Amino acid sequence: MGLLEVKDVNKRFGGLQALGNVNLSVAENTCHAIIGPNGAGKSTLLNCLVGKLIPDTGSVMFDGQSVLGRTPFEINQMGISRVFQTPEIFGDLTVMENMLIPCFAKRDGSFALHGIRSVLSEGELRDQAEQMLDDVNMLDKRNMHSASMSRGDKRRLEMAMCLVQNPKLLLLDEPTAGMARADTNNTIDLLKEIKEKRDITIAIIEHDMHVVFSLAERITVLAQGTPLVEDTPENIKGHPKVKEAYLGE
Ligand code: ADP
Ligand code: MG
């Protein structure tokens, strides 16, 4: 039994079958990559795991409990954190203020902006946030206005906002998209380090095969909303079906 168990999930958008009988099992403390061409349904699948979308049929179990019928916030409280395909940070806030939101939410089960601002002077949460920013090499940027940062830094901040919650399951939707090669390599190193240091399970959607093969222990290939094959990176590399569907060969 995996930490995450997706069974026979279907999701339609009008006439379009975005997900068709998706089964996926992500084992605890592994990194599982989901790859596939644009429009394959990868983001839709992730949205079904975090309560942003509700599958038409099927089940999604996390740590022995169903996530279906719960709000994204409740699912987050169960131990799932997610990095979006497009960075979702609060541009008007500083890096540090952004970091305090998940710290606050985890501790109190809710958050309010005035609360975050008053907490800035509070030791415990601030130390937690600063430590995490240090881990991702962003401590020197803590007072920066978030909107003015580079895309790479925004993604890095978003990743730190997820990791500071110490999630059991981290979901990443194309975390290195739009990053320069150096930032991509930093992200790989950061994720490797996190995997070594913590009990964490990672499910990652990624187009960059260098990232996938650097991190993943299992790979699921999704094509037209259905898993085509699931295997180890070594076997996926040479798989004829994968070459045909994904690499267009
Ligand atoms: P991927 O992340 O693999 O590129 P998506 O999950 O974003 O693919 O999309 C899968 C398919 O579902 C695409 O054809 C996309 O256009 C469609 N789709 C995704 N979200 C919606 C939506 N909210 N409404 C209608 N169609 C959608
Ligand atoms: Mg997507």
Automatic annotation (TrEMBL):
Domain ABC transporter span(s) in chain numbering: 4-249
InterPro entries named in the record: AAA+_ATPase, ABC_AA/LPS_Transport, ABC_transporter-like_ATP-bd, P-loop_NTPase
Pfam family, one: ABC_tran
SMART domains: AAA (SM00382)
GO molecular function: ATP binding; ATP hydrolysis activity
Source taxon at top rank: Bacteria
CDD domains reported in the protein's UniProt record: ABC_Mj1267_LivG_branched
Entry GO terms, CC: plasma membrane
Keywords: ATP-binding, Nucleotide-binding, Transport
Name of the protein this chain belongs to: Branched-chain amino acid ABC transporter substrate-binding protein
